[in-house]
Amino acid sequence: MTRPVALKTARDLAAAGLVDHAQIEPIEEVSKRYALAITPEMANLINPADPDDPIARQFIPSAGELETTPEERADPIGDHAHTPVKGVVHRYPDRVLLKAVHVCPVYCRFCFRREMVGPQGDGMMTAEELEAALDYIRSREEIWEVILTGGDPLVLSPRRLGEIMQGLSAIGHVKIVRFHTRVPVVDPGSIIADLITALKSSGKTTYVALHANHPSEMTEAARAACARLVDAGIAMVSQTVLLKGVNDDPAVLADLMRAFVETRVKPYYLHHPDLAPGTSHFRLDIAEGQRIVAALRGRISGLCQPTYVLDIPGGHGKAPIGDCAVRTDDCHSLVRDFSGTEHRYPPEA
Ligand code: SF4
User: Fold this and answer.
1) CA 341 to ligand 1 center in whole angstroms
2) Which residue, among 122, 101, 247, 92, has the nearest Cα to 179 in the 3D structure?
3) Contact partners, residue 107, CB within 8 Å, separation at least 6
4) DSSP SS3 for 179
5) Nearest CA to ligand 1 atom 6
């Protein structure tokens, strides 16, 4: 059976009824600069009659993307400053990113690596580049974890992934291999046995970090794809970007975090949006993010709580930025409960 193909041009979007003809030209302008792709699974979730559809907002280009604000930058989290060899980002002592491919099954309009991904992007690592990256990892005994990201590493064929895993399997100090991906949600049918075997073939403890931003993305097919991974012994965590007009609402985030936990995906990071070019329409300020995250406390189980983080621009790494529930008053600590009431600690005798 032939699988339905992704929508990759403004005309594809119009033919699918997702945009009207007047939008073709502006979308073509944006897609000359930033890649465009929407999988059939994501296209099917879009309600074209809803101007605020949260899935459309994530994947359908808008004219606002051509407006870059002064604080935005091509490399918002400073990958280049920490790249010792092509495809490796070594920002923290015990782990590296391995960017084996710069292609994705969908192109998110808020992507923090939007200047690097896509058909015109940095492509796939050559065999020589991969060997140089593996040499680097081999030579640094402090590297405990290798995180495959990109791009989306799960677009690689099982054979290619298997080759990369083969290289990592022989490196004794690497204990953890983690994959950052959107595939189980945006293309769940591609989570097949051969791919799962390849993901695990390093013999290391394997994690998959799933990127999803709205509860409607967690379809039955997506949940089943995650179940295949978890049942195979792969641990899963989540990543979500806090996005204006998509999920900047405690009720929406609560539904998403619960959907993750129901699917055996442990909520991990809630990212403050990065300063990627042309993405200001997605950004809210940190104080607003803190209010939303504080509203999740008490509303949902501790299992469902993600850590709200900011990647400090310039490559300085992640910092937790959720509001703090404790403050010090003279010699006492005052701890705020989920309803906003403060309690002295230790309590008065
Ligand atoms: S899947 Fe990840 S790397 Fe690819 S476009 Fe979306 S945010 Fe960027």
Assistant:
1) 40
2) 101
3) 34, 35, 36, 37, 59, 114, 117, 118
4) strand
5) 108
Give the distance (Å) from ligand 1 centre to CA of residue 299.
Answer: 30
Q: What is the pLDDT of residue 204?
A: 98
CA of 232 to the centre of ligand 1 (A): 25
Asked if 213 and 243 touch (Cβ cutoff 8 Å), the reply is yes
Neighbouring-strand partners of residue 264: none
Ligand 1 and 117: CB distance under 6 A: yes
Q: Which token pair is 255? A: 């539904």
Cβ contact 263:234 at 8 Å: no
List the structure tokens of 18.
């997702």
Q: What is the pLDDT of residues 271-292, one digit of tens each?
A: 999 999 999 999 999 999 999 9
**Residue 268 confidence (pLDDT) above 90:** yes
Provide the 3-class DSSP secondary structure of residue 269.
Answer: strand
Strand duo 88-92 + 332-336: pairing: unpaired
Residue reference for tokens 């990647």: 311
Going across the sheet that includes 342-345, the strands are 326-329, 332-336, 342-345
Q: What is the pTM of this model?
A: 0.95
